[in-house]
């Protein structure tokens, strides 16, 4: 058990407990945590999760947070972790899609180029932090009663990217402007923070996720967006460019197979599924039983009911 | 040339002119016209189109209008035809997706069931005309600042269908309500008027089409919508249930390959492409040259630069 299961034979989604849990954790320097459904649900910490992360930090592990949520800045995440009793984190340990999207655009855009943003204040703040001018956040109205008016609203000639994140003010008016920027300049980038189709709320309710808005823009533009978030390895590359991380000594902990686990497996990490979020074990079984090789990349190395189950393996 | 080209060998997209034009028209009892890009662009008739339709009507042909646009009622179409100088049409000759969607829901829903509508006044009016209660048209605001509030907005228990048409007031708030209706009741129908991804405007500009909104809802719900409009044969079935039409003696005239021509070919009609709309001849050639059999169903039997080119064949 000294090697990572991720590189030693097929992934079988074994329960991580006892001696195996001690060995897997001993072999890891870095743990990457998805947040919602793993550390907390809404505004409530998963019971035992703060204690488990406290012991991991005390054992000298590097803890990073890798989330597709584009609704919070890095600083806001450090505050939420502190408020819910998790060990202290610095902004540099937080990799949300607002930050990663800004980082991507900083690399991809020429100096002075601006972004038209379907998204909220966090996305705007992270763009500002890397010096990218932006427009779009907040409500927008159609500039007149007729379609001919809509196609005449002013366009900022500096815009060279359309960035789609979570936007509660998403509207036909914004979709229209996004399309016009993309048609006006064939080199205009189309970037989405993630493809999550729903955001689960406490009590089983759900609201539409950013993936719905990305699809609307992609359909209008007839172009595929570059997606910053998991399962794209760009999120892991962001971590790896900030810290010295050895994939073979890194564990990705998440509750979603098609984002967290797929990214972890693609990047050669050890993958650990928690059942406190959106996934039930029978979904994994269906992938394991499938003849389709692509579905095997959705199977984690290990699972736990909750990351609190790691506490015994982290005891004195 | 007495039979229809649609059933006599491969479709080759030949120019319809001279003796062939006279023979094809003589063999037809009914012509189905797409509107925008075929009869008019925006608010301007295609030059010569009213005269061509006038002669077809005088020759005793049945003229029907089959449009994916959900933004006008049947009555509004008859008025537009009259205003632009086309021969008089009755509402029963107009098959728009607002009318056809109402007709579909009238068949599919139990008595008293209501529809949640992403769409405009025309969609609402056609639903009222068939006695389906509806809610949704017009602007909607999110019912509070936090996601937990959004998932608590009241839902009408009578709603058994979500209908997505063109909606300039489309918003995240409406997407959220649509998802909640679809999640609340697994039997709730999801119906879209069409998948057109853009609406072309005069001068080469374009605005997002209903297909973008349908995709957003489908992505949230993770369900495929039933699409009323072309290329679905439901539109032709609506015509055929209103009139005695023989597919072998019917011509579908349109400017879009993936809607007009595909539906016409699927239903065994003779298909005629006009180049006054969104399609150029080289797109047809690419389909003709393709090895993929599915692409051959996008090739029309015939083309004309404009339906005004039929005038000589319709002379005395």
TrEMBL record, chains A, B:
GO terms for biological process: glycerol biosynthetic process; glycerophospholipid metabolic process. It is an enzyme of class 3 (hydrolase). Its EC number is 3.1.3.21, 3.1.3.48. Gene3D superfamilies: HAD superfamily/HAD-like. Divalent metal ions. Mg(2+) is the most effective. Keywords: Carbohydrate metabolism, Hydrolase, Magnesium, Metal-binding. Its cofactor is Mg(2+). Substrate binds at residue 230. Transmembrane segments: none annotated. The active site is at 34 (nucleophile), 36 (proton donor). GO terms for molecular function: metal ion binding; protein tyrosine phosphatase activity; sn-glycerol 3-phosphatase activity. One of its GO terms (cellular component) is cytoplasm. Mg(2+) binds at residues 34, 36, 255. It catalyses: O-phospho-L-tyrosyl-[protein] + H2O = L-tyrosyl-[protein] + phosphate; sn-glycerol 1-phosphate + H2O = glycerol + phosphate; sn-glycerol 3-phosphate + H2O = glycerol + phosphate. PANTHER family: 4-NITROPHENYLPHOSPHATASE-RELATED, GLYCEROL-3-PHOSPHATE PHOSPHATASE. Belongs to the HAD-like hydrolase superfamily. CbbY/CbbZ/Gph/YieH family. Homodimer. NCBIfam families: HAD-SF-IIA, PGP_euk. Glycerol-3-phosphate phosphatase hydrolyzing glycerol-3-phosphate into glycerol. Thereby, regulates the cellular levels of glycerol-3-phosphate a metabolic intermediate of glucose, lipid and energy metabolism. Was also shown to have a 2-phosphoglycolate phosphatase activity and a tyrosine-protein phosphatase activity. However, their physiological relevance is unclear. In vitro, also has a phosphatase activity toward ADP, ATP, GDP and GTP. This is Glycerol-3-phosphate phosphatase. It comes from Lepidothrix coronata. The gene is PGP.
């Amino acid at each position: 058990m000294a090697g990572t299961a991720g590189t030693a034979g097929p992934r079988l989604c074994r329960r991580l407990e006892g001696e195996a849990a001690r060995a897997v954790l001993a072999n890891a320097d870095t743990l990457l945590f998805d947040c919602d459904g793993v550390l907390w649900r809404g505004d409530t910490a998963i019971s035992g999760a703060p204690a488990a992360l406290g012991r991991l930090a005390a054992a000298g592990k590097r803890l990073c947070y890798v989330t597709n949520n584009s609704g919070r800045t890095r600083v806001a995440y450090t505050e939420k972790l502190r408020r819910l009793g998790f060990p202290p984190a610095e902004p540099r340990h937080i990799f949300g899609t607002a930050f990663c999207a800004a980082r991507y655009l900083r690399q991809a855009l020429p100096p002075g180029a601006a972004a038209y943003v379907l998204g909220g204040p966090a996305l705007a703040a992270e763009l500002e932090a890397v010096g990218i001018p932006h427009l779009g956040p907040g409500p927008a109205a159609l500039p007149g009663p007729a379609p001919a008016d809509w196609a005449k609203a002013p366009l900022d000639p500096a815009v060279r990217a359309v960035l789609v994140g979570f936007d509660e003010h998403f509207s036909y008016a914004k979709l229209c402007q996004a399309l016009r920027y993309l048609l006006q300049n064939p080199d205009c980038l189309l970037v989405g923070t993630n493809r999550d189709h729903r955001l689960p709320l406490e009590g089983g309710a759900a609201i539409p996720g950013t993936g719905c808005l990305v699809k609307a823009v992609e359909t209008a533009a007839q172009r595929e967006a570059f997606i910053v978030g998991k399962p794209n390895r760009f999120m892991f590359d962001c971590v790896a460019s900030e810290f010295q991380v050895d994939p073979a000594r890194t564990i990705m902990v998440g509750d979603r197979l098609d984002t967290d686990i797929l990214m972890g497996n693609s990047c050669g990490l050890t993958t650990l599924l928690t059942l406190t979020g959106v996934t039930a074990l029978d979904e994994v079984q269906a992938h394991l039983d499938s003849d389709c090789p692509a579905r095997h990349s959705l199977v984690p190395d290990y699972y736990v009911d909750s990351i609190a189950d790691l506490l015994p393996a982290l005891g004195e």
